[in-house]
Design a protein that fits this description.
- The chain is an alpha+beta fold.
- It folds into two domains: 150 residues, no CATH class; 111 residues, 3-Layer(aba) Sandwich (GIY-YIG endonuclease).
- The chain has nine helices and twelve strands.
- Strand 3 and strand 4 form a beta hairpin.
- Helix 2 packs across helix 3 and helix 6 crosses helix 7.
- The protein is globular.
């Protein structure tokens, strides 16, 4: 298997083995932020986060090869960036870059003294989220010059590891990519098809919740596939939301509240659904109409 620098050099006209290159591993969920989701949904903000640094760690560097941490000390590739210049982050023109994101993301930039102007290098998009490396024993050192061997190149269309029925959340884009790339996300398809269950859709714009149930031959997978195809799954209040804002589905978040055997009848599964509607108040205050 190639090292990161050698593999990326073979895909471009840049020889990363001769350039001054640093590898960066951003720890996911640092400071309470899900940087994997941030990278997918707010690329501009993620790049700002990477540009502001407390220490001059990107000095003497021509390019950054960036990763986001996954399980244990593994990390996935997210892009290559050219380091253009370093500036004092306290200068007002650089502080102005943050105004749109404060105060919600203010703690991401606390103690930052330096701003690095970074330019993403095109041509590596097909490998984003697919090249996996093992960072090694120095996981706390999130910036290194040491090259890394590629542990795995995930299939095109792969989204992320299945972490457990009750341990994940999926935004709509992630769910759509999983459903539309079943071979690349076989574990998701196999496991979600194997169970019935009660699920929750959260509208991240308002906090309103929809409680639903899945049963039948393809279980949760089959039900969620309907949402990908229709954006509303046939639910009246979601249909009404889409009439007001056709793009609101992009802010829907999916998760599972309880898994159930597929041997249960539809009536038995719906009884569990009713209990969760009562517990969460999704009829009175949420998106359930019955």
């Amino acid at each position: 298997m190639f090292t990161v620098k050698t593999f990326l050099s073979n895909q471009s006209n840049i020889d990363f083995n001769k350039e001054r290159v640093k590898l960066v591993r951003h720890k996911n969920n640092a400071g309470g932020h899900d940087f994997n989701s941030l990278f997918l949904n707010n690329h501009k903000l993620f790049n700002l986060y990477q540009s502001f640094q407390a220490r001059p760690i990107f000095d003497n560097c021509d390019h950054l090869i960036s990763f986001i941490g996954t399980r244990n000390t593994y990390a996935k590739f997210i892009g290559v960036y050219k380091v253009l210049e370093k500036c004092d982050a306290k200068e007002i023109k650089y502080k102005n870059k943050l105004k749109a994101y404060l105060p919600e993301f203010g703690n991401m930039f606390e103690g930052c003294n330096y701003y690095y102007e970074l330019e993403e290098i095109s041509g590596f998009g097909e490998f984003k989220d697919r090249i996996i490396i093992e960072w090694g024993a120095g996981a706390l050192a999130y910036v290194q010059r040491t090259d890394k061997e590629i542990s795995e190149i995930l299939p095109e269309g792969y989204v992320k590891e299945f972490s457990g029925f009750l341990d994940f959340t999926l935004d709509f884009e992630e769910l759509e990519n999983i459903i539309n790339n079943p071979e690349s996300n076989r574990e998701w398809r196999t496991l979600l098809s194997s169970v019935a269950g009660i699920y929750l859709i959260l509208d991240n714009r308002t906090g309103n919740q929809y409680v639903g149930s899945a049963y039948g031959e393809n279980g949760i997978w089959g039900r969620w596939k309907q949402y990908v195809q229709t954006k509303h799954g046939g639910n009246q209040k979601l249909i009404d939301l889409l009439k007001k804002d056709a793009g609101c589905f992009k802010k829907f978040q999916f998760t599972i509240l309880q898994i159930l055997p597929k041997t249960l009848t539809a009536r038995e599964v719906i009884e569990f659904e009713k209990k969760f509607k009562i517990k969460l108040g999704s009829r009175a205050f949420g998106l359930n109409s019955n």
